[in-house]
Design brief:
Elements lengths: L5 E5 L5 E5 L5 H11 L16 E5 L7 E3 L4 E3 L8 E5 H9 L13 H43 L11
Antiparallel strand pairs: 1-2, 3-6, 4-5
Length: 163
């Protein structure tokens, strides 16, 4: 059961804080099971309930929008429409990559996508910060220039007639 795991969330200065993964009640699992049927949630066609498996959020919680004020995910973490029962090997493959528990590569797994999104967010945050500094300096310098020109009584924009 994955209810005790925690979801990483980026905080200030690139440090990670941990958010608790919400508990999935048995009534939600039952509703998801009735909706899914007896087959594995990955679509392979195997009978899932005959083998040991795990409940899987699809899409992963790391990939969902999170609202820190309400402490809820969109779509909700306990929505039976987005909860699947998968055979353990299939769950590991989706979560960790093609190697399952052995890390051959994480390409295409939930973990890899979550890390990629974190890297892109960090790069975007740094870029936005740099562009903010650049636009603030340019706008301040532009305002100073306009004030200087107005005091000197010179036209700010050169006048020219239209043909």
């Amino acid at each position: 059961m994955i209810s005790g795991r925690k979801r990483p969330q980026r905080a200030k200065k690139g440090k990670k804080t941990k958010l608790t993964r919400p508990h999935t009640p048995d009534s939600v699992k039952l509703a998801a099971a009735l909706q899914q049927g007896i087959l594995c949630g990955c679509g392979c066609g195997e009978v899932a309930y005959a083998k040991q498996g795990n409940w899987d959020h699809d899409p992963a919680l790391e990939l969902r929008a999170y609202n820190p004020t309400t402490k809820k995910y969109t779509p909700d973490a306990n929505d039976p429409n987005f909860l699947r029962y998968r055979i353990k090997d299939h769950h590991n493959k989706k979560t960790h990559g093609p190697g399952g528990e052995k890390r051959i590569t994480t390409k295409g797994s939930d973990n890899q996508v979550a890390k990629q999104i974190d890297r892109l967010r960090d790069a975007n945050r740094e870029h936005s910060k740099a562009m903010g500094l650049k636009t603030n300096v340019a706008s301040k310098g532009h305002k100073d220039f306009l004030e200087k020109m107005a005091k000197a009584g010179k036209p700010v924009v050169p006048r020219r007639g239209f043909p």
